[in-house]
Amino acid sequence: MTSPNLNRRQWIVAAGGLSLGMAFGASAKESPSKTADTEPYPSGVGEALARLKKGNQRFRDGVSRHTHETASWRSLLVETQKPFATVLGCSDSRVPPELIFDAGFGDLFTIRVAGNIIAEDVIGTLQYGVAHLHTPLVVVLGHEGCGAVGATLEEMLHKTKELEHIESLIQLIKPGLRELDLNLDRAALMKAAVEANVRWSMRQLSTSPEGERALREKRVGLVGGVYDLATGRVRFLD
Q1: What is the pTM of this model?
Q2: N- or C-end of the chain: fewer Cβ atoms within 10 A?
């Protein structure tokens, strides 16, 4: 199965003046102003990434603030939203981005799908986060022990076959794992495969025509990370 083609129109449909805001819960109003329970909106990629890192550190230290979960904060978000990052993560129940990054309502525009893959039904959501919500940062978030990646390795090693729709998911992951040394021990192979899968999703985004242009013009930043289930740490990739 070939990977989806993220063309110019898919990456920035907003340029054509399409009005999808109401359909996704946004409006032309500005984002909630600074209040006692919020931080200033990140001014760019660096600040957005720093905020994620600080939130993850609080989560790991057991001092999450949960500041964006109050009734007063929710009321500010009834007619508008302005998340500071779009996060493509896995659907695994142990990897909720809002908790991992100590974020709350309105902070992150999240897309969760098994294996954090780039597929046709993911493209439109990524497109909306970048073009309409203008998030300065896109994060591809994988995690150790990913079942989708593990199933892909099983097929590559033992020629197994999964159920039809799981198999279609595996075929989207497999190209990113083809350069791996399958003779590694299982733990090392799994760790390498999870990281390779994150980089594969990033590559598909960054090499598409509009993705490459958006990154070159610094309209958006793209980073990858791997979440450790045991420690709670997100290791951002170089």
Answers
A1: 0.83
A2: C
